[in-house]
Design goal:
With 356 residues, this protein is mostly beta strands. It has 3 domains: 147 residues, Probable inorganic polyphosphate/atp-NAD kinase, domain 1 (Rossmann fold, 3-Layer(aba) Sandwich); 132 residues, Probable inorganic polyphosphate/atp-NAD kinase, domain 2 (Tumour Suppressor Smad4, Sandwich); 58 residues, no CATH class. The chain contains 5 helices and 26 strands. It has a 6-stranded mixed β-sheet with strand order 3-2-1-4-5-6, sandwiched between helices. It has a 6-stranded antiparallel β-sheet with strand order 9-8-25-16-11-12. The protein is globular. About 17% of the residues have low confidence.
């Protein structure tokens, strides 16, 4: 990759160690005639933000100082500018930010000498449609997760690939991950590990109800569409005092029941006055206690665990490979397989006759 570097953005986590380290990086850049601008990543409960007083297009290089979370934010902030990202791990785990703080200056030397290697990493985009209208768009380097927000109950996720129905997952949620994100949330949900430069996407259910529900890998050019919903039947509720009459079609009633109607008594349960039609909502009360809603299901979308929104029943989410990849500066001192062995504590050494 041929590009003259005149101005670099130092994107740092707002930690005191990163602030002190960024000063040394600024000095090293200045010695090479490169001006720099320091940008702070602000991580809040509402999302991640970048504090910058100038256009991101003015930079030729982005240096991420922090952990994997800082790199994820940097990848989104600089998306579309075709700026290489130099990711330095000053955090704890540092799976994605493979350049350690001990090798940053030697790695910078290799970069300015034209000896650095670059990788293109697939990024993921999704559109959230509600009643046919696009309401939000998200971008992610690792994954976009659809999860339930309730204390109990599963959610139903209907999945299509290129317009063809794949299956219905009943689970705690579902992850659509990139190859880079295959070692993140998806790995914790028993997903496969992919080489990070592959052109694929992973569909991975979270704690599925059926053992037959497995992760599925599709091509990077495929289009994934997911519709979320409440898997519980929509019962007609006729509440009176503490007894609730619920009609479930296709249930096999007991001998005392007729027309597939089941009469169930819930002691000390009261129906909520503003219950949605999509689910039976009850507030369980103990004597002298305030009712706590345990059954009303909400859905939540999270992009790289940094941005997100609450979804509604029947929302449709469309996933695609983003038009522009992340350009990542590779570490010259460790390979991806070496990172896997170290970070995942894989043991063992090859036999003498297997070494080549």
């Amino acid at each position: 990759m041929e590009r003259e570097i005149r101005r670099a953005a130092i994107v740092r986590h707002p930690h005191l160690d990163c602030r002190a380290f960024s000063e040394a990086v600024e000095k090293a850049l200045a010695e090479r005639g490169v001006t720099s601008g320091v940008l702070d990543v602000i991580l809040t409960e509402d999302g991640s933000y970048l504090r910058s007083s100038e256009s991101l297009g003015n930079f030729d290089l982005a240096i991420s100082l922090g952990g994997d979370g800082t790199l994820l934010a940097t990848a989104r902030f600089f998306y579309g500018y075709a700026i290489p990202v130099f990711a330095v791990n000053t955090g704890t785990f540092g799976f994605l930010a493979a350049i350690s703080h001990d090798e940053i200056f030697s790695a910078l030397g290799a970069l300015f000498a034209g000896q650095a290697q670059f990788e293109e990493r697939l990024m993921l985009t999704c559109l959230v449609r509600r009643s046919g209208q696009v309401v939000r768009e998200f971008l992610a380097l690792n994954e976009i997760a659809l999860t339930r927000q309730g204390v109990t109950g599963m959610i139903s996720l209907d999945v299509w690939v290129n317009g063809e129905f794949l299956c219905r997952y009943r689970a705690d949620g579902l992850i659509v991950a990139t190859p880079t994100g295959s070692t993140g949330y998806s790995l914790s949900a028993s997903g496969p590990i992919l080489m990070p430069t592959l052109d694929n996407m992973i569909i991975n259910p979270i704690c599925p109800h059926s053992l037959a529900s497995r992760p599925f890998v599709v091509a990077g050019g495929d289009v994934i569409t997911i519709s979320v919903g409440d898997p519980r039947l929509e019962p007609s509720v006729a509440a009176r005092d503490t007894d609730v009459h619920v009609s479930y079609p296709r249930l096999e009633p007991s001998v005392a029941a007729r027309d597939a109607d089941v009469h169930v008594s819930y002691p000390r349960l009261e129906p909520s006055a503003n219950a949605p039609k999509s689910s039976a909502r009850f507030i369980a009360k103990q004597d002298g206690e305030t009712g706590v809603n345990l059954r009303h299901t909400h859905f939540f979308l999270a992009a790289d665990a940094q941005e997100g929104m609450v979804l509604e029943d029947k929302d449709e989410i469309e996933f695609r490979r983003a038009p522009h990849p992340l350009i990542l500066v590779r570490s010259s001192e460790r390979s991806y397989l070496g990172v896997l062995r170290t970070k995942l504590a894989w043991n063992g050494t090859p036999s003498a006759h297997e070494v080549k």
